[in-house]
Write a structure and sequence with these properties.
2 domains, globular, five-stranded antiparallel β-sheet, GMP Synthetase, Chain A, domain 3, alpha/beta, Rossmann fold, 14 helices
Length: about 475
Amino acid sequence: MEQWSFPPKFDPNYLPPSGSRYWFPKRETMPAAEREKAILERLKLVTRYAWDHSPMYRRKWEEAGFHPDQLKSLEDFESRVPVLTKKDLRESQAKTPPFGEYLCVPDSEVYHIHGTSGTTGRPTAFAIGREDWDSIANAHARIMWGMGLRPGDTVFISAIFSLYMGSWGALSGAERLRTKAFPFGAGASGMTARAAMWLDLTRPQGLYATPSFALRLGEVARTEGYDPRQFGLKVMFFSGEPGASVPAVRDRIADMYGARVIDCGSMAEVTPFMNISGSAETDGMLLWQDIVYTEVCDPATFRRVPYGQRGTPVYTHLERTSQPMIRLMSGDLTLWENGPNPCGRTYPRLPQGVFGRIDDMFTIRGENVYPSEVEAVIAKLADYGGEHRIVISRDGTMDELLVRVEASAECVARGDEAQATLRPSTGKALQTLLGLRAKVEIVPPNTFPRTDFKARRVIDDREVFREMNARLQD
């Protein structure tokens, strides 16, 4: 396997032949069983490394009765190694601030510090060693090569440069790939309109953002007199929220810009977060197993579910020495498959991407529903105006659901009858495709604010629900 060692060491000058589909042909196309043998040997090294360098892992594993010498198969790894939670990370950092008992490298080797916002409690600090930053850059460059980006291309990074790992990770990959990296950013007043201006000026081949920002950018660009399809983008890759694997959302972005839309991104803690990512030829998200070993597990037992079934991703670093994550529970929900991939890579795949966090699920009359599934239905509506809100009430024995949907400007221009028709057609689509009844309110275009980051479309507020429900009854 190419450049396969632990601790990882990569040739900083390596680039594949220009005509190659693959960065590392053997690692990406080898028989899965052969790769799994190599992964098992790597897991033995990774767990021994963590045992020797992390009091947190040693204590947790001793309590579970696990020792790295017991690791003889992937089934041993799955059954003997306990999962790690975000709560474990916060508690470790509270005990040993700021980086916790799982830093595993000398403090002097920390090169980048990122973290969570801490808006709901103690923030979590991400400490990345200098050599690990190089490994992350190599992994992301390799995956971006698989997306179809090449040295000399311009990559426009329109995401917030702050604590958020996504923008920095995309930048590291773009630089290692020898592209012309444009760290434009996002979030400041008037920045979306300026992004449209710079896209028109530079005509980049690639763009990184969140799906919500791409949709907002396209709307603003048209308002400013630009045609997004004339920006010349060939690849748009997204992380931070579900959407790029939702067919209706993906197709809407692709049609707006005339570009290939690729979904990527697992968790900031698992950076290189592009370890789950689509490719130039393959929709959904490939699990790049030789970078981060991913198990899709039953969320109750944390044992792998069969291919074709839903579960929660559990991640293990194979190329990190600083803050290595070993069986980190994501709390997300997905479905995995293991059939042939159009790109020829022999990785498992998440054909529908990540649905969302299990905690985001709500139950309507016995039906479990995720916000991304509602979005998938609404985004297909011909008269959808681009934004919506999902309002949930948990006031009774079962959740009640109200969906507020913006009408498009074209729908409004056709008059009241068109808007009146949109309401029952939306309700019918939700019932037909999701099997649930929802109350629907049609609102004017631009009722809801657009975002430069991740959209928040779910409102869990019984008072808001009562107010809107009363309005619908009038």
